[in-house]
Amino acid sequence: MSEMQRRDFLKFGLAAGAMAAVATLPKPAKAAYTRITVAELREMTPQQMAEASGLVMAGWDNLQATAAQIRNPKIRATVQEIMATPAPTIMKKIGKSEKKEIYRELTAKGLLKDVSFDDFLPPAKSASRAPQPFYSAPGSGYGSHHSYPGGLITHTDLNTRVSMALYEGYRDVYDYLLDRDVVIASQLLHDLHKPWVFQWGKDGASRNELKLAGTGEHHPLGVAESIARGLPAEVCIAQACAHNHPRTPADEKQVVGWLQTAAIINGIDPVAYGLLEKGGKTLPLPRRQEGFVCHLGDHDWVLTVPAAQWTIPVMQKIAQRDYKIAKNDVKGFNSFRNYVFSQGTVMGLYEIYAAKGEPELTRTVHSIVAYA
């Protein structure tokens, strides 16, 4: 077995063990689907779809209950405030001249490439008000994982459960006491700016994400928001590790880049804030392990990306065949898949498809959207 295969096997084996351990955590209730017609779903907003989903709302309740478990009152209050209002407050201090300076510095340092000045940073009508609630955002780009209203909730709920199971595993097996508050806060906030980045469009799809510091822009923007809200460095560092870990110099360089980007956006010194070691080349030494747990916990996408890519074409077939939604009716199909996915989740529907075949998946879709 190659080193890469061995690492992947250990990673996935650990994740499987973590999933077994989440039996002790609160479980969202299985709610019956809310069955409506195509005409009705065409009139619904993404927020209304999320609010009509028993699974999404149960996940939202669980995430709020998990945030309430954070013991440090300042961290707890800040996390709860962000979840309640995921507004891009980093924009409060970014006028046109500040944006130009940030753009120039990020470009000069190789942290921003192939993005025009006009496209840099998602649209923001207000720095104090979120474009949408945390609970109505998708979990990723429109062709990827959790790409439906409320997908951010199911994605974050699963990842937080895995992270807590890892925390408990390290404690029970190694007597290794990670900072529980940091584990919870970093995972709850790891995608905090997806409500800003993935704003819903008039065609029913979400905004296309651009790159920032070599990854999806939501990631460094989320870390920047945590800094702007005054969260301690250890939470911001662990959050930055969601997309990679500091196991090798090459890996750590990416994490350092995301922290540098977040610091530049905020106009702060990352070393002085405690984000980086003196000299700015590594994370603070010795490196804490909460970031590794956040990274391992954020692996729901390994299963959910292919599940989405395999399920969406079948949904198109069902929409055209059974509901007479024309192939060129982009908004009609997007509204249809958004509602069905928000009710059943992509993972839940794909499991039906994989285990029982297309006829049973079709029957399930018919139970969600009235079929004449």
Lay out the secondary structure:
Elements: H1 3-21, H2 38-42, H3 46-51, H4 54-67, H5 73-84, H6 96-108, H7 151-174, H8 180-188, H9 194-197, E1 211-212, E2 215-216, H10 218-228, H11 233-240, H12 249-266, H13 270-273, H14 290-297, H15 301-322, H16 330-344, H17 346-356, H18 358-368
Antiparallel strand pairs: 1-2
Helix pairs in contact: 1-7, 4-7, 7-8, 7-14, 8-11, 8-14, 10-11, 10-12, 11-14, 15-17, 17-18
Instruction: Describe the main β-sheet briefly.
Output: 2 strands, antiparallel
* Beta strands, count: 2
Individual helix count? 18
The side-by-side strand order for the widest beta sheet comes to 1-2
SS content category: mainly alpha
**For the terminal residues, how far apart are their CA atoms?**
53 Å
Rg, alpha carbons: 21 Å
Shape descriptor reads globular
The proportion of residues forming helix, as a percent range, comes to 55-70%
Strand content: under 5%
What is the typical, i.e. mean, pLDDT? 92
Low-confidence stretches: 1-29
